[in-house]
Amino acid sequence: MAGWINYIVSMLTFAGLYALMALGLNVIWGMAGMINLGLVGFFAVGGYVSALLTLKLGLPIPLGVAAAVALAAAAGALVALTTAKLRGDYLAIVTLGFSEVVRLIAANEIWLTNGTDGISRIPGPWRGQVPPEQFNLIFLAIVAAVVLAVVFLLQRVRHSPFGRVLRAIRDDDQVAAVAGKWVIFFKVEAFVVGAAVIGLSGALYGHYTSYISPDNYVPLITIYIVLALSAGGTGNNWGAVVGSVLVVFFLESTRFLKDLLPFLKPVQVAAVREFLIASGLILVLHFRPQGLIPERLPRSRLNDQADEKAP
């Protein structure tokens, strides 16, 4: 029984980390309309920065996480400025290339990242001072608190004038430009905010698992997060959280297929897993194309006043 509890706690923790990535993607894609297939690159930047600073320089974990968020945000600004005039498929290809560049640097710069062997013994809050079961519960509480704080802040952003400008850019950036909005500036800001949240997730991931390597940052993770946001509801922060929990549930529930299908080889079981995961998410998107929690555009005070004056 204790093993099952630890397993559930661990999966909830990973769901929270996925939720942070989905929330960051929601700012870039769901609110600003920019297709970003390189979010795993920001995830890797956050993980490596915090791991190196806390392990090699001995900085406290909060400082390492803060530095990871700052550098991930800086990377987001760099990518946004580089791709400022790109859109659609071109933007997707460039951001995907960015994530692969980060992964290849992590794999080849052995002097810094230890290459494909990865970085181990990354410190975690109270790791070694409390039993593993208690550490998992502590970290779950930390991740849950961070997710709630990020949702609260992004909800404020969504209802702010900044959020309304991002949605205007998403719908038609030329109209937003004609209205006097500096479109490139707002796109860069959206990338910075989204990359910072994704970098935060990467830093927490490293401190939770105590080990990271280039193999942890494959493009498939980006696909999972895109599916999570699409299934939960693009443009809705709570939808990003719900979609992440749904994706983790699909990923983990299919692990038990090897017990139900003992006549299949491990490679075949893996193929069946991917098929079932894709089928389940396709069904969700088919019956709920707008997501489980569709985006509801916040009403402005002017609209409310107009409704009050209407007969």
Q: How would you describe the overall organization of this protein?
A:
The chain is mainly α. The protein has a domain at 8-217. Helices cover 75% and strands 1% of the residues. It contains 14 helices and two strands. The chain has a two-stranded antiparallel sheet. Helix 2 crosses helix 9 and helix 7 crosses helix 9 (183-209). The longest helix is centred in the first third of the chain and has 30 residues, at 2-31. The N and C termini lie far apart (63 Å). The mean pLDDT is 88.
Count of helix runs: 14
Low-confidence stretches: none
Strand percentage: under 5%
Could you give the order of the helices and strands? HHHHHEHHHHEHHHHH
Determine the structural class based on helices, strands and strand pairing: mainly alpha
Q: What average pLDDT do the residues reach?
A: 88
Number of strands: 2
Q: Helical proportion?
A: over 70%
- In one word, what is the shape? globular
Oligomer: single chain
Major sheet size, sense and barrel closure: 2 strands, antiparallel
User: How many whole angstroms does the radius of gyration measure?
Assistant: 20 Å
Q: Going across the biggest sheet, name each strand in turn.
A: 1-2
**Alpha-carbon distance between the termini?**
63 Å
Which SSEs are present, and which pair or pack?
Layout: H1 2-31, H2 39-56, H3 61-82, H4 88-108, H5 110-113, E1 119-120, H6 132-159, H7 161-171, H8 173-178, H9 183-209, E2 211-212, H10 219-232, H11 237-253, H12 257-260, H13 266-287, H14 301-309
Antiparallel strand pairs: 1-2
